[in-house]
Amino acid sequence: NAFQFIRLQSEGERGGFLVKGTRELSGNLQATAEASFTRAESNFVDSPPTQDGTSNGSIWFNRDGQRFAFKLTLPVGHPDNPFTVPVGLRYRFVDLGPTLTKVTNDSSRVLFGLNGVMGAWDWESAFLYSKTERKEVANGRLYLPALLAAVNNRTYRFGGTNTADVIAGLNPYRTSSGSTDITSLDLKGSRELFQLAGGPAAIAVGAEIRREAFDIVSDPEQVKGNYVGIASTTVDASRNVSSLFAELSAPVVKNVETQFAVRYDHYSDYGNSTTPKVGIKWNANTFLALRGNYAEAFRAPSLTQTSNSRVQSFSTITDPVRCPNGSTPRPGGDTTDCTGRTVASIFLPSTGLEPERSKSFTLGAIFSPLSNLSVTADYWEIRRRDQIDRFSAQQVINNELVPGYTGGSVVRNSNPASFLIDANGNPIPGTGPLETTTRRFLNLGETRVSGYDLNLASRFQVAGGALRANANATLIRKYLYQLEKGGQFVDGAGNFYLFETPKLRATATVGFTKSGQYDIFARYNYVGGWDYGDPTAANGCYLSSTSATLAFLG
């Protein structure tokens, strides 16, 4: 009975503190100091580990990509095997006890800041150090050397009584940890410059230096591959970032506001990015305003994508070499080549990655015919290029034989006994079962998204209280996604297949507040339907959701 070990709610504790103080150093200078620490501990309980020797068993890989496999099979002569042939055993190691996992998350933050006035400038500066740490101590994964000895040396009795030493050896605790660090120092200032026809021009400038570090350390035995069915993650990376930015607000003529901004960032691991922004707003009259914005942005490659890191995952794939028609394996193959085989994927860092870059613009209007009623409508469009991603394991496998393919590589079993067989009964080199794929992050295709935002807000005094009504809606016009440069665009708007992106999301709220007595409101949420299935095929199903809330606060 596996349910006897499961908790509906995990046990946990959380605690922390925050200390903040300010001090006037002079009439134009103020200092601020802040320190905080939070610890959260969670304890999870689950069923004892299992092994299924009646299936394909467990397949996993160590940090270097070496393949491991274990299938619980009792050899002939084992005291728990009454048969004259080896037998697979499906077994839960109940005498090992429940699986226990303790996770400790620590977050600490220290800040020292100064702000004041110097001449015509308002300025502020701050030093920040922030660190998050995570430590996990867990059992529940069988230790391979002890498990092999337990089976082959008959030291473990399946369904019988076992010594404490044997049990402890099979199920030791493993410890993994990770941390992120951010250290930064910034300086910002703003002031008015001069008078224009529409009012004073103002400028804000700033600079920042920052160091980012990311570290994940898996248990050494886990890195070696000595725990059945579990991979490891390793990250050891850091970088320095420096930034400069400036923004100018210039009401060049009456009723027209303009904004110009530019930002420069230098990353030690990839280079430089300069991103501008321009905005304009025209108050046509007392009840109508028109506005527009153009901006460029970037997203730097993450530390796990560019530095000393190695991340593993598992995928179920089919093999086009050993099962080209998708249903019948070639001679020497087996059914898993067609129905699905589990392989490991190793993600390696990539050198020379460019940041993702985007351009966006909005165009809209604010209509306020009454002081307590406003309607806002905006059209927006975002175009992102050089998006950082990796091809799926199946895509890499499908392109295994394509010359010059850069999406990744494939490793197959090199044992000639596992090769496919040609018409003369000879093994075909290089056709062993798939074991691993190696994938790297690449700058791939482009995404183009556009849509509309609508908002209505009103508030009226009635019957000794305030009646309010609000409505918001976002309509996705297009969500065009390009998997690789020069490839075909697929529209993911209203389709679960790519992004789980419905075309329409909307909320509406109506409420009444009686000052000092009560508040009552009703809210309606709507999520438009989206198809589930390949948008290029005529299949799938249609999903949508709505919800309503009625609340009374007295």
Characterize the structure shown:
The chain has 554 residues and is mainly β. It is 6% helix and 59% strand. The chain has 6 helices and 32 strands. The strands form 6 sheets. It has a 22-stranded mixed β-sheet that branches. Strands 3-8 form a two-stranded antiparallel sheet. It has a two-stranded antiparallel ribbon with strand order 4-5. A hairpin with a 5-residue loop joins strand 23 and strand 24. The longest helix is centred in the N-terminal third of the chain and has 9 residues. The chain starts with 10 loop residues before the first strand and ends with a strand.
Explain briefly what this protein structure is.
By secondary structure, this protein is mainly beta. 6% of the residues lie in helices and 59% in strands. The strands form six sheets. It has a 22-stranded mixed sheet that branches. Strands 3-8 form a two-stranded antiparallel ribbon.
Topology summary:
Blueprint: E1 11-26, E2 29-46, E3 50-52, E4 58-61, E5 67-70, E6 73-74, E7 87-88, E8 90-92, E9 99-118, E10 121-138, H1 144-152, H2 164-170, E11 174-196, E12 199-217, H3 220-224, E13 234-249, E14 256-267, E15 271-283, E16 288-299, H4 303-306, E17 308-317, H5 336-339, E18 341-348, E19 356-370, E20 373-385, E21 388-389, H6 393-398, E22 408-412, E23 420-421, E24 427-428, E25 434-440, E26 442-443, E27 447-462, E28 465-482, E29 489-491, E30 504-514, E31 518-532, E32 541-553
Parallel strand pairs: 18-25
Antiparallel strand pairs: 1-2, 2-9, 3-8, 4-5, 6-7, 9-10, 10-11, 11-12, 12-13, 13-14, 13-17, 14-15, 15-16, 16-19, 17-18, 19-20, 20-27, 21-26, 22-25, 23-24, 27-28, 28-29, 28-30, 30-31, 31-32
